[in-house]
Amino acid sequence: MRNNLLIFTFVFFTLPIVSFAQSAPDFKELLDSAIIRDSDLKMQLTQNKLTELDEHKLNDIFLPKLEVSGQAGYLNGTMRLTSPEINLMPFIHIPEGSFNNNLNISGFSGIVKADAKMLIYSGGKVKYLKKAIEEKKKSENILLEKTKDEIIANVSKAYDQLALVHQSKKVLDESKKRLEINRKTADKALGYGLITPYDHKKIELAQATLEAKMVEYEGKKELLLTQLYILTGINRERLRLIDPVLKPVELLSAEQGIEHRAEIRALEHGITAADYKIKAEKTWMIPKVQLMASAYYIGLYEPRVKTSDNIIPAIPTLGYGGTKLDWHPNNITIFPFITAGVGFKWDIFDGKEGKHAEETAKVGKEVLQNQKEGALKKLTLNLANNQTNYDISTAQINLKSKEKSLAKSALIQAEKEFRYGMSKSSQLIDAESDLEMVELEFQNAIFNQRRAGIELMRSTQELDIAKLYYY
User: Fold this and answer.
1) What pLDDT does residue 93 have?
2) Which residues contact 82 (CB under 8 A, 6 or more apart)?
3) Do residues 425 and 200 lie in contact, with contact meaning Cβ atoms separated by under 8 Å?
């Protein structure tokens, strides 16, 4: 029973520690977080939504459109009537213009109209515009690759700079250990009178210089952690757990050509889109056909129809003074009043507006072709330059590796000579400084080679993090 209680107590207090323990983020997590947070990528994705809206707009252009309109008001209209000749001889003869009259119609009017239209043939313009937008979307999606490569390069640089700081710290720690050992040897040598106080002070100065470098590198580490935090949003406590190691990038040469670059592929899709745009603008001379239907409601309320003069002439002999028209009919309505059919529009001559739009599209294509030609030249030179930089930086690693081996041998020899009193402390400190400098240069050479390798992979759009960081 007592043993079970001890086990329960141990598990109770250790489980929270295990549960809340944080692990260091790997490069993939850093990269995924940076991609989510990157402002440029967000802006680009937002801009791409406008193209999607244009695509939806074109897809909806063949949907029927229904419009309802109406109006209400007071109607008052007058027209002049001149009577024609009436010849009913021998009974009656009325010369032309014998009776002139003004007919007035008034009342409250109301009109409601519903129009339905549906495009059934656009002359091929919509079809070509859809294809142009499809090519534009492909171009925009390809440019996202370029933006993501820039994010990878930025995160990789900060990550490798942090690795460089860590490696430099290890170099300084090793140098510190050696100086501690040599300090003890110098203390004994000073006690035996084998070295002067001045030589002893030089070792103390070397230690103080090393401590200053340690403070400097700690400051650089904090700055890089801040940069990674801004890029990824991962908390600093986890970022501090990162202990990266610098390794050279093993590449021989670019496997693909510059034609695979995002800029070139995006321009090619842009040129194809421009071709479709030209075809779309050429359809200005082709008739457009649509279905049309309308329904009307027309009403006249409290109408009054009257004339200014008699419509039945007076007969004095009979004592009849004539009669004017003053009619108050019931409300007049017409519903439904429907029209339906097929309509077309044919721009036989549009003031060269369609022709100008076609020429503008051709100029746009020419601009893209010139941009592609210029990009090919720049990217060809960029590839050659990056290949040269990679080859040089790889050779520098081999050179610094040999220099480091020689500096280690020189330091071992200087330590032996100092221990047996055959050399002064200045020679030992020089040998120590040389090894420290060469080791730091070796780490910098690896860092520079990795940067050159990344740029070489980017030259042909072959940036692969698997070649940079192993999972």
Assistant:
1) 63
2) 96, 97, 100
3) yes
Q: Above 80 in pLDDT, residue 313?
A: no
Please tell me whether residue 414 adopts helix, strand or coil conformation.
helix
| Among 224, 23, 43, 59, CA closest to 134 | 59
Query: What pLDDT is recorded for position 11?
Result: 46
Residue 129 structure tokens:
């515009």
The single-letter DSSP state of residue 123 is: T
Query: End-to-end CA distance of the chain, in Å?
Result: 46
Residues 112, 67: contact at Cβ < 8 Å? no
Q: What is the DSSP letter of 318?
A: G
Cα dihedral 40→43→44→50 (10° resolution): -170
Q: Answer whether residue 5 shows pLDDT above 80.
A: no
Cβ neighbours, 10 Å, residue 61? 13
List CB contacts of 450: < 8 A, sequence separation 6 or more: 156, 160, 246, 248, 249, 468
Alpha-carbon span 457 to 250, nearest angstrom? 11
CA distances from 443 to 153, 378, 412, 450, 457 (A): 19, 31, 21, 11, 21
State the CB neighbour count (10 A cutoff) for residue 81. 14
pLDDT mean over 330-345: 81
- In the block, residue with structure tokens 């295990």: 18
SS3 127: helix
pLDDT in tens, 50-63: 999 998 888 888 88
Q: Which residues pair with 290 in a beta bridge?
A: 119, 343
The length of the chain in residues reads: 471
- pLDDT for the residue numbered 159: 94
- pLDDT reported for residue 376: 95
Average pLDDT over residues 29-48: 93
Q: Return the beta strands (E) in 313-418 as ranges.
A: 323-327, 332-345
Name the nearest CA neighbour of 390 among 246, 247, 249, 245: 249
DSSP letter, residue 316: G
* Cβ neighbours of residue 401 closer than 8 Å, sequence gap 6 or more: 442
3-state secondary structure of 322: coil
- d(CA 257, CA 240) in angstroms, rounded, equals 40
> Could you tell me the two tokens for 20?
């809340």
